[in-house]
Amino acid sequence: MQLPDMNLLVALDILLDEGSVVGAARRMNLSPAAMSRTLTRIREALGDPVLVRAGRGLVPTSKALELRAQVHELVEQAALVFRSADTIDLASLQRRFSVRANDFFVGVYGGRLIDILERQAPLCELRFVPVGDGDDEALREGRIDLRISNTRPLSPEVKVQNLFTTNFVGLVREDHPLLAEEITAERFAAYPHISMSRRGIARGPIDAALAELGLKRRVPMIAPGFHAAMFMLPDSDLILPVPKESQLSVRRLGLRLRSFVLPIPLPTLILNQSWHPRDDKDQAHKWFREVVRTCCHETWKQAQQGS
């Protein structure tokens, strides 16, 4: 079945409202001749003259009068569909945003994110999804809305936006013997370390940097999350490398921990958010992505000021 040209519906609505080919042509930015041809197509589609001459003007036929209200309502509904793509009522928006991120992001940024949602879109929910192994299809399958990570997704079609860059610092208890003297690479490597890895991997960039100096650290503990590992530090001589922004959590919680600049060069981390193209133009999703970006930027500035 061949669908009719929807532009004819709009033209019919304007023609019935104007009762004039010239007036309708003006509103549709067409020439009178083009509008007359459109009216001919409408007549053929409906099997009715639609507008007939009465004196110097045109009047609608009985069928046109019957259709007028229905046609106008359909045009209004269609316009509403397209207007809704440009605007969003946050106060009435009901949506759950599922975000895959590690505990560092949840701990540092989660509170500010939910505060913005509560104030701007109070009917929405924020759901953090645990980072999992071999789950690169989550965006494609629609199980999550955003993936926040320092690695780029494997799926080539996925959209990616950089959020901010960060560096690692060391974290220890406030009376740790490492702090008593200058922190050299040798002294840094001499104390036990916590390795952060959700896959249980003990070695990484820190070990590579130490190896170039002929040094090796001891890693007696491997933890899957930064914030849980922080609470191990007060009772041990362990060293925990953390992203710089984690210092905000230390200050907010009043933890008796100290941070220090690592005595070895490490690559800068770029944190990004990624999403599937199906959500690229969705207004609610665009708003949420902007909230995440703004939240990260403001928190990043706060971390720089406090360092």
Automatic annotation (TrEMBL):
<protein>
    <submittedName>
        <fullName>LysR family transcriptional regulator</fullName>
    </submittedName>
</protein>
<dbReference type="Pfam" id="PF00126">
    <property type="entry name" value="HTH_1"/>
</dbReference>
<keyword id="KW-0805">Transcription regulation</keyword>
<dbReference type="InterPro" id="IPR036390">
    <property type="entry name" value="WH_DNA-bd_sf"/>
</dbReference>
<dbReference type="InterPro" id="IPR005119">
    <property type="entry name" value="LysR_subst-bd"/>
</dbReference>
<dbReference type="InterPro" id="IPR050389">
    <property type="entry name" value="LysR-type_TF"/>
</dbReference>
<keyword id="KW-0238">DNA-binding</keyword>
<dbReference type="InterPro" id="IPR036388">
    <property type="entry name" value="WH-like_DNA-bd_sf"/>
</dbReference>
<feature type="domain" description="HTH lysR-type">
    <location>
        <begin position="4"/>
        <end position="61"/>
    </location>
</feature>
<dbReference type="Pfam" id="PF03466">
    <property type="entry name" value="LysR_substrate"/>
</dbReference>
<keyword id="KW-0804">Transcription</keyword>
<comment type="similarity">
    <text>Belongs to the LysR transcriptional regulatory family.</text>
</comment>
<dbReference type="InterPro" id="IPR000847">
    <property type="entry name" value="LysR_HTH_N"/>
</dbReference>
